[in-house]
Amino acid sequence: MSSPDIAGILESSRELDRLRKEQEEVLLEINKMHKKLNATPEVVEKPGDNSLSRLKILYTQAKDLSENEVTVSNNLLNLLDALLPSGPPGQQRRRIGSDQKRKRMKNESDISRLSPAMRNQLEACASLKGEQVAARVTGNNAEKDEWFVVKVMQFDRETKEFEVLDEEPGDDEEGGGQRKYKLPMSCIIPFPKKNDPSSVPDFPPGRHVLAVYPGTTALYKATVVSPPRKRKTDEYLLEFDDDEEDGALPQRAVPFYNVVALPEGHRQ
């Protein structure tokens, strides 16, 4: 192996290390922006706010860095392949093992093509295994959306699909037993953590949300009357749509960890 060959490999390794460090820095900034927007989503409506444009710039930087990482990684692999001896015919078993290793490296390379934000999202989805989440289990052609509390059984990183279990289906469900569904990421909303109230978005009065109706495992559209912060409890005071009693909408208390943002385009 010549000195120029070694120098090229070392240079590519240093470049790869630099790119990954930059990706980590950008990802930290993206996570900070996500936390800010989750805590105060109304900030984007204020005149002069540049949160969304800043987030777009960060996503673009993350995408460029990820693509550069793939390019440098492939170049490094080519340098190593060109220098490694092919070996005599008697080393067929070793070459097979090398091929398997290359396949694993290719899969890792495919994953690295994703932006850091997307990889972070996939990790978050995988961490939901065993957790209860809100899930839309109705088809795209349904007249209205139906959301239920389900338990995450598995998350497939390749298909980006959740396997979930409806532990308490309604009386009108066929069979009357527990049912499993395979749902895309767009049909799943994680609940806030019970043991971390500080990370929960503080939906202001008048904000439309999706919340678990007391005594059920179904979620419905509701309007915030008072958030936990003002009530000094861990419960929202909500008015659910179509929950009229004696000509008025009763105000119902719902724990903060059973309240999520209303999905865009919600039909109910």
DSSP strand count: 10
What's the gyration radius in Å? 25 Å
Q: What structural class do you assign from the helix and strand content?
A: alpha+beta
Portion of residues in beta strands equals 15-25%
* Contiguous helical run count: 5
Form type: elongated
Provide an overview of this structure.
The chain is of the alpha+beta class. It folds into three domains: 3-80; 116-190, SH3 type barrels; 207-261, SH3 type barrels. Helices cover 40% and strands 21% of the residues. It has five helices and ten strands, in the order ααααβββββββαβββ. The chain has helices spanning 3-39, 51-83, 92-112, 116-126, 228-231, and strands at residues 132-136, 147-156, 161-166, 179-184, 188-190, 208-212, 218-226, 235-240, 252-255, 259-261. Strands 1, 2, 3, 4, 5, 6, 7, 8, 9 and 10 form a ten-stranded antiparallel sheet that branches. α1 runs antiparallel to α2. The longest helix has 37 residues, at 3-39. The N and C termini lie far apart (68 Å). The model is unreliable at 87-97 (pLDDT under 50).
Could you give the topology of this structure?
Elements: H1 3-39, H2 51-83, H3 92-112, H4 116-126, E1 132-136, E2 147-156, E3 161-166, E4 179-184, E5 188-190, E6 208-212, E7 218-226, H5 228-231, E8 235-240, E9 252-255, E10 259-261
Antiparallel strand pairs: 1-2, 1-5, 2-3, 2-7, 3-4, 6-7, 6-10, 7-8, 8-9
Helix pairs in contact: 1-2
